[in-house]
Amino acid sequence: MKYDFDTPVQRYGTDSIKWKVEENELPMWVADMDFKTAPKIIEALSSRVEHGVFGYPYIPEDWSLAYASWWKRRHGLEMDPKHLLFVTGVIPAISSSVRKLTTPNENIVIQTPVYNVFFNCIKNNGARVLENRLVYSDGAYSIDWEDLEKSLSDPQTTMMILCNPQNPAGKIWDKETLSRIGLLCHKYGVTVISDEIHCDIARPGTSYVPFASVSDICADISITCLSPTKAFNIAGIGTAAVYIPNDRLRHKIFRAINTDEVAEPSVFACLCSTTAFNECGDWLDEMNSYVFDNRSFAEEFISENIPSLHVVSGDATYLLWVDISALETTSKEFASFARKNTGLFVTEGSHYGSCGDGFLRINIACPRSVLEDGLDRLKRSVELFRS
């Protein structure tokens, strides 16, 4: 490999949320990587720092062109760069959109188990969570279409937040599924926010389908949230975009993010994005190869050494969604037990909705030696729990 993903990076003392732990603990929870970002991003930032003046920046034209070029090359989506808006993060974009496009007590549909902060974006802005629980059968997830249509047809439902690809299960929704979602939402006048922040972390040889690429209907009713932060491990920079082809909808979100003051970049935000998309594709390819080798290693280890646990199959994200239901306990109880007794810090599945209980989410974007340590701790945790 051209790039080094094997050497552990010391993250204690860097104000990392993930690594705010005791010295004997191993955090495998928050969705950021333990790899250094691409060298060309580091070089670009270093050069900008050396300049020494950090005044107010504007959003340069090459920022939107970099997004459009990347999505055309990588994902086959023809974007008009004028349909992109800068925003400081995907979550600020979602929260602003909820505030602007819904009124108090309206329903927003989410498909659980799903990223836990979606619940906060909805509840903190006066709306109601309406869960369309995914069907878990034979170790895989699918959509309960009857329940989804029932939820969308409720006159009180005005929005759906789609996780594409799906976090935490790592499922890539196919074109047919996304088209069917789009048709239902259009039928009932529901706006779709498609969170696609994990889209570039995919098994080599596979690719996700952008919701807006599926049909004119999907493009017209949607707000797509995009960012290089997960794929290139630059979450702390604060850089993202929303892609909105519909003119009136885009104007509303433009007003929302500016009213909420989340539409102005830091001096590093656009630089990081343009460098990542224009110069770092080879780094991303190697990172994906490494992470999915990690996934295969973890799946084999768990199958051979902890056969009572099952890793849900997935083709996206660097997150393992692990079925621990055979332990006959709650995910909160086991996650707490593991942290207390072995120092392994993973996320309890109940954070992602009640149907996530009985699962754990484990971050495997780390050097192989760190992953081996985490898996050994998981094995010991299960053995100790059972004894």
Structure at a glance:
By secondary structure, the chain is α/β, with parallel strands linked by helices. The protein has helices spanning 39-51, 61-75, 90-101, 117-123, 145-153, 175-187, 216-220, 229-232, 247-259, 269-279, 281-305, 331-342, 368-386; strands at residues 26-27, 84-87, 107-110, 128-131, 135-137, 140-142, 157-163, 191-195, 222-226, 240-243, 310-311, 319-323, 344-345, 347-348, 359-363.
How would you explain this protein's 3D organization?
This protein has 387 residues and is α/β, with parallel strands linked by helices. The chain has 2 domains: 26-39 and 281-386, Aspartate Aminotransferase, domain 1 (Alpha-Beta Complex), CATH 3.90.1150; 54-279, Type I PLP-dependent aspartate aminotransferase-like (Major domain) (Aspartate Aminotransferase, domain 2, 3-Layer(aba) Sandwich), CATH 3.40.640.10. The protein has 13 helices and 15 strands. It has helices at 39-51, 61-75, 90-101, 117-123, 145-153, 175-187, 216-220, 229-232, 247-259, 269-279, 281-305, 331-342, 368-386, and strands spanning 26-27, 84-87, 107-110, 128-131, 135-137, 140-142, 157-163, 191-195, 222-226, 240-243, 310-311, 319-323, 344-345, 347-348, 359-363. The chain has a 7-stranded mixed sheet with strand order 2-10-9-8-7-3-4, with helices on both faces. A 4-stranded antiparallel sheet has the order 11-12-15-14, with helices on one face. A two-stranded parallel ribbon has the order 1-13. Helix 2 (61-75) runs parallel beside helix 10. The longest helix has 25 residues, at 281-305.
